Predict the 3D structure of the following.
Amino acid sequence: MPSDELTEKSSAGASPVRYAGATKRYPGSAKAAVEDLTLEVPAGEICVLVGPSGCGKTTAMRMVNRMVEISEGDILIGDRSVRDRSPAQLRREIGYVIQQVGLFPHRTIAENIVAVPQLLGWKKERAAARGAELLALIGLDPDLADRYPAQLSGGQQQRVGVARALAADPLVMLMDEPFGAIDPINRERLQNEFLRLQAEIGKTVLFVTHDIDEAIKMGDRIAIMREGGRVAQYATPAEILMDPADEFVEDFVGADRALKRLALMRVADIDLWKAPLAQAGQATAEVRADLEDAEIPYPLLVDGERRPLGWLSERDLAGEKVPARPDSPLGPLLDRDDIMRDALADLLQGEAQYAAVVDHEGRIDGVLSVEIISEFLASPKAKTEEHSAVERPRG
Amino acid sequence: MASVTTLAAVGEVGKGFIHERTSETLPCQATDKLFCWDWAGEHINRYETPTLQHLELVAISVLIGFVIAFALALLAHRHQWLQPPLLAGTGVLYTIPSVAFFFLLLPLTGRGMDTAIIALSAYTLQIIFRNTMIGFANVPRAVVDAARGMGQTDRQVLWRVELPLAMPEIFAGLQVATVSTVAIATLAAFAGGGGLGEPILKGGISFKTNLIIAGGIAFLIAVILGLILFAVQRFLTPWRRVRQA
């Protein structure tokens, strides 16, 4: 099976990247574009280089495949210096994705994807098989294989750009603002797709962006850079949000960093409220009794499998038995694994105070409210403890 | 002459009649009629050799011009500083009046087709060179960056990416160069280079039928060659025909 062979290779094909005092000086310029950069990106991780424009992040990235030549110092991929082979040979081992995509307009999608295998002299059948495999991997309709890039949307083109970079199973991927030119909705989709892909292929990725939110979302580690390619802080997204190294990082991350931390949390990470539950046909007196010491003044109607159906109002409880149809619709329904930031967005968008949270089987797990989130953001724990459930102060 | 005398003898019968008779009897080519169909039908053969010569002049000149201009364009693409002097140099050649160019070359290269070809080739340089450079300049930078970034050598970038993408402009240059060479080649006769200019020179400018046939053939050659080049360009650049998404 050729695909098995390739998957095996993919999992083995990631190398750490080490900057060892790498410096780039342009002639006629007093200041170095990148000065004495030392940084280690562990194999299989996404390292995001982020910083204001002109900070040297793109230069630093392009030094890895020698699109920018190193003036002093060195960069190692695995144990090998990038300087011990010709730039062309080096680049064939490194995936390269750029903001403007740069697909070959005169080549079909299939031809574009196998451009690097072709340079490496792969046999036609092997390249074609790999091309088909990658089309499937990026979720592109196989019918598009014979189209030209101009016939694809921007989002589809960048998917092809990513596939092209992955084609020869590179040791390292360089991605220069890869989703920067794509509309927000598609950008989010492509980011998610790439994260899902990365979970599968586990490449070492250097990812350049100027967008701190994208950095937080995409990075296993983030290097925040300032002028001259100096690293202001190199840490995980959580550490950077919780414990900015200095004022520059704090400013760059923004005053809303507490809010940004929501992007790192899942709904399951927070203590949910327990909803008073009710089932159709149950005596309303019983439900009213439950409401007495509940955190939510409305009971949640669930079916026999404890799947939420909707909220019961005062009117619903006026009779003796709980009706089968709730008065108020369910509103936003969240999954335990939803990102907290998205969950908050759903709450706000649904103009709802409460949202039912369900597990993978769709059974009720608890209730998330805007109040829980705001208390979490205000609590001192939010500043010290990450990825842990937070106790809701009683009161 | 005899017929004229006979007609004169008819005397007073009527001027209109005499006139009609005259025009019927005189050979068409002796009158100032715009086009003499009979004469054209009988003498069309005498244009065969000039037509073939004309095609030869155009084909060889454009080919030589293309090879030189293309080589210069590759050189100037690699060494950008060469662009301004090469543009200026080919520009100067382009501005020399063509008849003067032929006569200037005569003492150096003598009468004949070679002289004509040298001058005609020189005229194509500017157009082909400039268009090729425009073609290279229009290749999207991101595409070249991606090609280099994936490990294509400079030569691979040139032949696999830049040249194919510059094709439309290069062909546009070839088209203009070819069509204008067809026109200028009619002056090759001044240098003894043959071509469709020769029957024009020999037949004199007052015999319109001759002018129209020679000029018409040149016109047709220009149109047909232009269309052929257009078709070849379309065939070679299929990606330009697809509908945009």
